[in-house]
Design goal:
Blueprint: E1 2-4, E2 29-31, H1 38-41, E3 53-57, H2 70-74, H3 80-104, E4 112-113, H4 117-120, E5 152-156, E6 167-177, E7 181-191, E8 194-195, E9 199-206, E10 211-218, E11 225-233, E12 244-253
Parallel strand pairs: 1-2, 2-3, 3-5
Antiparallel strand pairs: 4-5, 6-10, 6-12, 7-8, 7-9, 7-11
C-alpha cells in the first residue's frame, strides 16, 4: 500500500483501526507533503510516521513551487480547474504528482534515512547507507524488509515544477589565489548523460586556501561526471583585476558515495 499524504484532520493520532497503518499490508510506504499543523496552518496531511518507510520530501511541510502567487497558479498550464485546485491544496496534491513522476524515473527520488530534515542537510545522513537509499514512490517496495527499525523516516528534496526528481551531490571547493575577495562561487557539473545549470556553493567572503562545502540537488541524472566548471564573480568592477581559482574541487555522489 502506498499512502499519498494520508489525511491529518480526524485521523492523526487515532487508533490504527481507523487510519492507515503499517499493519494494513505486507509493505506500506507513505509520502508526506502537507504535514503542517491543521491549526493554524491548515495542513491536510499526517505528520507522524505510520508505514514501513515514510518519505518526507522537502521536510514534508511546504513543497517548492507551491508559493507562487494565486493568479499565476490558478491560470496554470494544465488549465484553470487544475490550477485552482492546486492553489487550494498544492502541498497536499504534490504527493500524487511525485508518485506519477517516480514511475517515469525509477532511479530518482532517493530518500536518505535521517532523524530530521534539519539533520538531512548535514554530513550525518550523506551519502546513502551501504544497502542504498529507497526510491520514494512506485519503486519503494524494492526495499521491502531491508530496514529493521519500527519506523524509518527518509528525507529528500524535489524540484519546483515537473519533472520533480533531483539527484544529490556534495561539492567541496578549495580556493586558490593571492588575496581575500568578496563575491560568489558557482559550480556546474558535466556528465556522460548530460550537464547541470550553475549551482552556488558560497557567497560573501572568499579566502584563498579555504574550503567551502555545499550539498546540491541537481535536476538530472548526468551519469558519470566528466568535467566540472568553476566560476566566480565579485559583482563589481575592480581595476586591480583580482583573480581566484579552484585549487581542488571534490564532487561526491549521494547515491554511491
Amino acid at each position: 500500500l502506498s499512502g499519498l499524504d494520508p489525511a491529518q484532520p480526524y485521523f492523526q493520532d487515532t487508533p490504527i483501526e481507523v487510519r492507515l497503518d503499517k499493519s494494513d499490508a505486507e509493505f506500506v510506504d507513505v509520502i508526506h507533503t502537507d504535514s503542517a499543523p491543521t491549526i493554524p496552518y491548515l495542513g491536510f496531511g499526517m505528520s507522524t510516521a505510520i508505514g514501513h518507510l515514510d518519505f518526507y520530501p522537502n521536510g514534508g511541510v511546504e513543497m517548492p513551487g507551491c508559493d507562487k502567487n494565486s493568479v499565476s497558479q490558478i491560470v496554470d498550464l494544465d488549465g484553470i480547474w487544475e490550477g485552482t485546485r492546486d492553489f487550494v491544496a498544492c502541498n497536499h496534491l504534490r504527493s500524487y504528482k511525485y508518485y506519477s513522476d517516480s514511475i517515469i524515473y525509477p532511479d530518482g527520488f532517493l530518500g536518505y534515512p535521517c532523524a530530521s530534515y534539519d539533520v538531512f542537510e548535514s554530513d550525518n545522513c550523506f551519502p546513502c547507507p551501504e544497502g542504498g537509499c529507497p526510491n520514494m514512490g512506485h519503486f519503494a517496495d524494492k526495499f521491502k524488509g531491508k530496514f529493521k527499525a519500527d519506523f524509518t523516516k527518509l528525507y529528500l528534496n524535489t524540484g519546483e515544477v515537473k519533472d520533480f526528481p533531483l539527484w544529490r551531490y556534495k561539492v567541496s571547493v578549495t580556493l586558490a589565489g593571492k588575496s581575500k575577495q568578496r563575491g560568489y562561487v558557482n559550480i556546474a557539473l558535466y556528465g556522460d548523460d548530460g550537464n547541470t545549470r550553475q549551482h552556488q556553493i558560497v557567497q560573501g567572503a572568499l579566502k584563498p586556501d579555504n574550503t567551502y562545502v555545499k550539498f546540491i540537488d541537481i535536476e538530472a541524472n548526468i551519469g558519470t561526471i566528466t568535467k566540472v566548471k568553476f566560476l566566480w564573480n565579485n559583482n563589481w568592477l575592480n581595476p586591480t583585476l583580482p583573480k581566484l581559482g579552484a585549487a581542488t574541487v571534490t564532487v561526491q555522489s549521494g547515491e554511491n558515495g
